[in-house]
Amino acid sequence: MEGKIDNLLKLVGKTAENVFKMNENITSLQSGESLLRLENSRLKREVEELKNEIRQKNVVIYGLEERDRNEEELTEIILRMLNEGMGVRILQEDMDGVTRLGRYNHQKIRPILVALTTMKAKKAIMRSRRNLKGTKIYIEEDLTVETRAREKALKPLMIEKRKEGYHVVIRRGKLLVENLECTEEAASFLEEFIKKKKAEREEMWRKRERAKNRNNGHK
User: Fold this and answer.
1) Is CATH 3.40.50.10490 what the domain over 58-142 is classified as, yes or no?
2) How far, in Å, CA of 106 to CA of 154, rounded?
3) How far, in Å, are 54, 99, 111, 127, 142 from residue 73 at the CA level?
4) Its pTM surpasses 0.70
């Protein structure tokens, strides 16, 4: 009888050990899955940022009637609108190409992608787009669908924080508070966030100054 009990206890112990090992394996697998999800999310974000970087010099024009028959005519129309309608000095060599996006539909005006050769030309256009107020035409940055969706989702938060007296803008899918990149989570405790970020920035500058002084001292 005692032998049977001993055998039973050994079996229970062995089973418990196997269960423990299985739990360890499951936990390990879950941790690995979580890491893979994080890595996948990070890679997606990097790809999106790369796509936005490629589009960085582009602008998209909406609402400009389709009277053009080819790229040459479209280029002339855009140059006239920019120079005469908006007061921006843009030359043909400032543009790398123009194209209507999507298939022709007589019921819908297709947007125009304008690829510019310099950031200076792009910034001049973006600064002067307010001159289109009162028309059906407007100009936006060329962003990915994901970034546009993120900016749309961030707008209510931007409006809320502006009402609280903060300088808040959305730039290429990122929320900037007092010129500091801020997450949605950090926006709920902005004072602490801004203090922390400013302290980090000051510390970084102090380190640079100390390194600069050491380098000068060795000369």
Assistant:
1) no
2) 34
3) 26, 11, 15, 25, 22
4) no
On whether the CB atoms of residues 61 and 139 are closer than 8 A, the answer is yes
205, 212 Cβ separation under 8 angstroms:
no
State pLDDT tens for residues 71-128. Answer: 999 999 999 999 999 999 999 999 999 999 989 888 899 999 999 999 999 999 999 9
Contact 59, 116 (CB under 8 A): yes
Strands (E), 107-152: 112-116, 138-141
Beta-strand relationship, 112-116 and 168-171: unpaired
Rounded CA separation 42/171 (Å): 19
Query: CA torsion, points 83, 88, 91, 93, in degrees to nearest 10?
Result: -140
**45-68 residue pLDDT tens:** 666 666 666 788 899 999 999 988
What ranges do the domains of the chain cover?
1-50, 58-142, 146-218
Residue 163 corresponds to which tokens in the numbers above? 């009402």
Nearest to 164 by CA among 190, 186, 183: 190
* Contact predicate 170/187, CB 8 Å: no
Query: Partners of 113 in the beta sheet?
Result: 60, 99
